[in-house]
Amino acid sequence: MDRNLSQNTIKMYHFYLTDFISWIQKITEHENPRITDLDYDLIKKYRVDLNRRISSRSHEELKKSTQKTFLVALRAFLKYLVQEEDISILSPDKVVLGKPEAGVPKVLNREQLLALFGAQNLSKRSGLRDRAILELLFSTGLRVSELVNLNVDDVNLNIDEFSVVGKGRKVRTVYLSDSAKKALGKYMSTRNDDFSPLFLRYSGRSMGENDIDGESLRLTVRSVQRLVKKYVVRAGISVDATPHTLRHSFATGLLREGADLRSVQELLGHSNVSTTQIYTHVKNLQLKEAHKKFHKDPQAVVLD
Prior knowledge:
The chain is mostly helical. It has a two-stranded antiparallel sheet with strand order 1-2. It contains twelve helices and two strands; from the N terminus they run ααααααββαααααα. Helix 5 (125-140) crosses helix 9 (243-256). The protein folds into two domains: 7-94, no CATH class; 110-288, hpI Integrase, Chain A (Orthogonal Bundle). It has helices spanning 7-28, 40-52, 64-83, 110-117, 125-140, 144-148, 178-188, 221-234, 243-256, 261-268, 273-276, 280-294, and strands spanning 161-165, 171-175. The longest helix is centred in the first third of the chain and has 22 residues, at 7-28. Strand 1 and strand 2 form a beta hairpin. The termini are far apart.
């Protein structure tokens, strides 16, 4: 069953399924448990276990969204066994995911964005690179995985748009702001190489042998996450911002300027508009402010 999953998603599914296997080995005291022995009661016990777990990183209970991801991986595996291997097992629908947590995405306001974009040392090529990364993330709403996979040939600075391959190998068009084009242009002017990756690292391990295209110098997702964190601290921003925060800020800004949800869905590369609906709080706030403004002076409202 080819779902066009990214390598990162496949790795995470492996992690979640390995967790489930370890758990079921412990709970059943069988070293080699059979998938056909899986029943609804075991699923309920696993959900309870996830609900009681403490994260080794945050030292807090697992978020509902995290618990759901464990169960999504398990349900996808069962679905594969039923549809592709024709194995008679517990129906995947029995793995109830539960309701997701209602949350409002973290975003940066205009002042915070200006502070973030002003925190780089532009006398260094790494500073020019980092400014270009931040501007590009905010201008396009790219996922950090999409950004690090960009090659020099993917971006034409003579036009304001380019194509990117997102989740599910879905191609979409993203657009460059003037400031993003300017920042990218300054960064590219420092490049006198023929390497493929758009964003290169300038420290760390040495370049790989026989690496003609410079793939061993390509920035990683983790590197971009660290550099965003570094500039958030340097800019004195109170929000615990990540590359995804810039994606949220991009989407929120579009809605505030009047873009409709379907257009934002297309720009973000969401396969389902329900994913984009986390940003409806923006529209709700606008409606609330409009309502308050309209009713601020009841005497001024003339009713026919």
